[in-house]
Automatic annotation (TrEMBL):
<dbReference type="Pfam" id="PF09261">
    <property type="entry name" value="Alpha-mann_mid"/>
</dbReference>
<dbReference type="Pfam" id="PF07748">
    <property type="entry name" value="Glyco_hydro_38C"/>
</dbReference>
<dbReference type="GO" id="GO:0030246">
    <property type="term" value="F:carbohydrate binding"/>
</dbReference>
<feature type="domain" description="Glycoside hydrolase family 38 central">
    <location>
        <begin position="270"/>
        <end position="347"/>
    </location>
</feature>
<dbReference type="InterPro" id="IPR027291">
    <property type="entry name" value="Glyco_hydro_38_N_sf"/>
</dbReference>
<dbReference type="GO" id="GO:0009313">
    <property type="term" value="P:oligosaccharide catabolic process"/>
</dbReference>
<dbReference type="Pfam" id="PF17677">
    <property type="entry name" value="Glyco_hydro38C2"/>
</dbReference>
<protein>
    <submittedName>
        <fullName>Alpha-mannosidase</fullName>
    </submittedName>
</protein>
<dbReference type="InterPro" id="IPR013780">
    <property type="entry name" value="Glyco_hydro_b"/>
</dbReference>
<keyword id="KW-0479">Metal-binding</keyword>
<keyword id="KW-0378">Hydrolase</keyword>
<dbReference type="InterPro" id="IPR011013">
    <property type="entry name" value="Gal_mutarotase_sf_dom"/>
</dbReference>
<dbReference type="InterPro" id="IPR000602">
    <property type="entry name" value="Glyco_hydro_38_N"/>
</dbReference>
<dbReference type="InterPro" id="IPR028995">
    <property type="entry name" value="Glyco_hydro_57/38_cen_sf"/>
</dbReference>
<dbReference type="GO" id="GO:0006013">
    <property type="term" value="P:mannose metabolic process"/>
</dbReference>
<dbReference type="Pfam" id="PF01074">
    <property type="entry name" value="Glyco_hydro_38N"/>
</dbReference>
<dbReference type="InterPro" id="IPR037094">
    <property type="entry name" value="Glyco_hydro_38_cen_sf"/>
</dbReference>
């Protein structure tokens, strides 16, 4: 008889709530699948069912309460096993670090509240790749183990399918890669699959897991599956063929303490095209993540300072929308067109909830600032229909900074002013700029440079007619012909192609680029399906945007803008290259009218360094990757650095973005992936005249080029990327008494490399949560101060460590470190 190693049979139902169908169909299929699993539990006393995704359980609770009560009973008796611990099985590269924290926070707390258990096994059997920070994110969400399937063996070779997976901070989870798929509805016959896995287990010297059950569109274990299992158990013995769960499997493995390899790497990659499909949903994801965090920060401040009710339930609903849309077939861009229309609605709800919460909080704070002046007796709009200014007293404009460090940023105020001062009456530099409106002669706005405290605010006074003492700018921005220049950079453009001809870093007197920069290259991708299955890169160059027009859009002491408009076939690319007088980076606001099919647009930046290396942001961390031209996922920034040819010193170029998630680096050439236009949900299917293509029409985003000497850590790249993505918030005010001062700081962190990303009400409502992470890969100890709570404490951060602090409402109780699910 064939000698088999031990097999743990895992009864599951892989169920995509959205893919080739909309969520409403997935909703119904979840009910039917859960009913089927409950039927199997009645029919087969030894059967055990494994199920993840808190969102599915919430749907059952809402729509089939009797079945929900049945599930509770089965969970309590140990025959329905909860795994995953997250809201959904998300794409595991594109969500932010804080989104992964929220998957655990809302998923695990839901399971604990409803079933009295939390998942111990992380579970993403269909996600397309897994970022290298997941071990820490899993451990700090209460999970010690991980199960995945992709990348499969032909996509990433591993020493063996069972191993310790370690993230940069040293966190480890015991991890198992499925030997093949999670389903019995496709692939080899079930019996052959079990025997094959048994032979692997015998060879490896430890047990394996085999997943069974009809999947993708639900279904789960069938009567036929269980009859085959009975036959296999009779043939090979119940000690070899065991009906089991992932929990049971990992507990058994740990009890035997086998020698296992340690992998310290990301788990990539199944489908390289998923990180550039459907630009709209990806851009909405980035916006929603940041807006929700901004809303939480100022809702917390407004509650502490002024008693404004914290909108916990509304914000939780918005987060659940965002987390659901991070499902791997939505976030990965490989669903049908109708599914993305649904995602647009869902993101819209989340964004609007966040906008309302943010507005309520900032306006409650701004209305409570003492802006009264002795000359004012009552409010009256005698002077101007748009402004409450009386005489030459000015109008208060409150600028809020959601970031955890002081920022010096340009602020756009939508009125034309003659002067602007800070709260102490000191004039600040300003510039008249074009407004977005064309209302008679009322088409001008004001730009000024603000310095705003960390997670705080500052009042600036804007004057309609009063000429305050002007503030000279040491090095006004030059915008002439085809040149932008300030104290830090000189950027020259090719007038025919519209590309950057030279980008001189004046601090080192060196050219940042080694050829045309911001070069729009067209890549052929007819050979790619929506996912990019079987591909490693997109580099089949077939053309360029050309026929460029370069014109000066704006010139002034604070800001200069050159608009470059170029064309390819029926598509138009408009890039507004913007240089501010105080900044050492070139910001680019892009408007793209895209009409191509089976093509991709990349922006190329050949960086003038030798022995180039590349590093990219990943969720709550970073990773270094080979410069081999592979298409890879990134988040808010990636950096290419190496040795200067002139001096041999270390230097580089960071490329930041507001909503793009894919790039490649070949040698020292960096390419930001802007857009691609495959067919919706095309898995190398029939391509006829009725198919529809992605990303047709208008889209907008921003990117920035940050040249630097030294390392990316020394150059503050992480902060600059956040500043590009998180803009200041401005609120017009009027004259009123109030308990708050005109300048307030919300947080102080002693170490530059530590960023606070979240400040929210604790889930138990009896305190506050501050979450920070170390960004540069170096241990540090720092002091953290939250003035509005009257709290100060010290914390030690390891390399890339995430720390969550619970600050009790009662000041007599100490600040405590908790995990991501806010458990001590």
């Amino acid at each position: 008889m064939t000698q088999l190693g031990k097999i743990h049979l895992i009864g599951n139902a892989h169920l995509d709530p959205v893919w080739l169908w909309q969520w409403q169909e997935g909703y119904g299929e979840i009910k039917a699948t859960f009913r089927s699993a409950l039927d199997r539990l009645k029919e087969y006393p030894e059967f055990v069912f494994t199920r993840s995704c808190a969102a599915y359980y919430a749907w059952i609770e809402e729509n089939a309460p009797d079945m929900f009560e049945e599930i509770k009973v089965r969970v309590a008796e140990g025959r329905w096993v909860i795994v995953g611990g997250w809201w959904i099985q998300p794409d595991c590269n594109l969500p932010s670090g804080e989104s992964f924290a929220r998957h655990g926070l809302y998923g695990q707390r839901y399971f604990q509240e409803k079933f009295g258990v939390m998942a111990k096994v992380g579970y993403n059997v269909d996600s397309f790749g897994h970022n290298g920070m997941l071990p820490q994110l899993l451990k700090k969400s209460g999970m010690d183990y991980y199960v995945f399937m992709r990348p499969e063996k032909h996509e990433k070779e591993l020493e063996q399918n069972l191993f310790w997976w370690e993230s940069e901070d040293g966190s480890r989870v015991l991890t198992f890669r499925l030997s093949d798929n999670y389903s019995t509805s496709w692939g080899a016959p079930f019996e052959d699959k079990v025997v094959s896995h048994g032979l692997m287990a015998d060879h490896d010297g430890h047990a394996h897991m085999t997943f069974y059950g009809v999947g993708n569109h639900g279904g789960g274990p069938t009567i036929g599956n269980l009859e085959v299992i009975q036959e296999l158990q009779e043939k090979f013995g119940k000690d070899r063929i065991v009906i089991s769960t992932p929990n049971q499997y990992f507990a058994e493995i740990e009890s035997t303490q086998p020698e296992l390899p340690v992998l310290k790497d990301e788990l990539q990659m199944h489908a390289v095209g998923c990180y550039s499909t459907h630009s709209e949903s990806k851009e909405n994801n980035r916006r929603a993540e940041h807006r929700l965090l901004n809303a939480e920060k100022f809702a917390s401040a407004a509650n502490v300072l002024l008693g404004l009710k914290y909108p916990n339930e509304q914000l939780k609903l918005a987060w659940e929308n965002v987390l659901f849309n991070q499902f791997h077939d939505i976030m990965g861009g490989c669903s049908i067109r109708e599914a993305f229309q649904d995602a647009r609605e869902s993101y819209g709800e989340a964004l609007h909830i966040a906008a309302k919460a943010l507005n309520a909080a900032t306006q409650r704070i701004s209305w409570s600032i003492n802006t009264m002046k002795p000359e004012v007796s009552a409010l009256s709009k005698d002077k101007n229909w748009m402004s409450w200014e009386q005489g030459d007293l000015g109008t208060p404009f409150v600028v809020f900074n959601p970031l955890s460090w002081e920022v010096e940023v340009p602020v756009h105020a939508n009125r034309r002013m003659t002067s602007v001062t800070d709260e102490s009456g000191n004039p600040v530099p300003m510039q008249t700029i074009r407004a977005s409106r064309t209302n008679g002669h009322d088409n001008w706005d004001t730009l000024f440079i603000a310095q705003v405290p960390a997670m705080g605010y500052r009042v600036y006074w804007c004057y309609l007619t009063k000429e305050n003492q002007s503030v000279p700018v040491d090095m006004p921005v030059i915008a002439e012909g085809n040149v932008l220049e300030n104290a830090f950079l000189r950027v020259e453009f090719n007038t025919n192609s519209g590309t950057i001809k030279r980008m001189i870093d004046k601090r080192t007197n060196t050219d940042v680029l080694d050829g045309p920069g911001a070069l729009p290259v067209i890549i052929d991708e007819h050979h790619s399906d929506t996912w990019g299955h079987g591909l490693h890169s997109y580099r089949d160059l077939i053309g360029y945007f050309a026929d460029a027009e370069v014109k000066v859009l704006e010139h002034g002491p604070l800001r200069g803008i050159l608009r470059v408009t170029s064309r390819y076939n029926g598509s138009t690319l408009r890039q507004d290259f913007t240089l501010h007088h105080h900044a050492s980076e070139l910001q680019v606001n892009v408007q793209l009218e895209w009409r191509e099919k089976h093509k991709m647009l990349k922006l190329s930046f050949p960086v003038a360094v030798e022995q180039a290396e590349s590093v990219s942001e990943i969720p709550y961390g970073y990773i270094q990757r080979e410069t081999n031209g592979r298409e890879v996922p990134g988040q808010q920034w990636f950096d290419v650095y190496g040795q200067s040819r002139e001096t041999g010193e270390l230097r580089g170029l960071a490329i930041l973005n507001t909503g793009k998630y894919a790039y490649d680096v070949m040698g020292s050439e960096a390419r930001l992936t802007v857009v691609r236009s495959p067919i919706f949900a095309d898995h190398y299917g029939v391509r006829d005249d009725q198919v529809e293509y992605m990303d047709q029409g208008l889209q907008e985003f921003s990117y920035a080029l940050v040249p630097h000497g030294g390392s990316w850590q020394e150059s503050g790249i992480v902060r600059k990327a956040y500043e590009l993505n998180v803009q200041p918030i401005g609120v017009w005010e009027t004259y009123h008494e109030g308990p708050l001062p005109q300048l307030m700081e919300g947080i102080q962190i002693g170490a530059d490399q530590v960023v606070a990303t979240a400040f929210k009400q604790a889930e138990d409502g009896d305190g506050w949560i501050v979450r920070c992470y170390e960004t540069s890969g170096a241990p540090v100890e720092t002091e953290i101060v939250v003035p509005l709570l009257g709290r100060t404490w010290r914390a030690s951060f390891g390399k890339c460590e995430i720390k969550t602090f619970f600050i009790p409402s009662h000041s007599s109780e100490p600040v405590q470190e908790v995990n991501l699910i806010e458990v001590h």
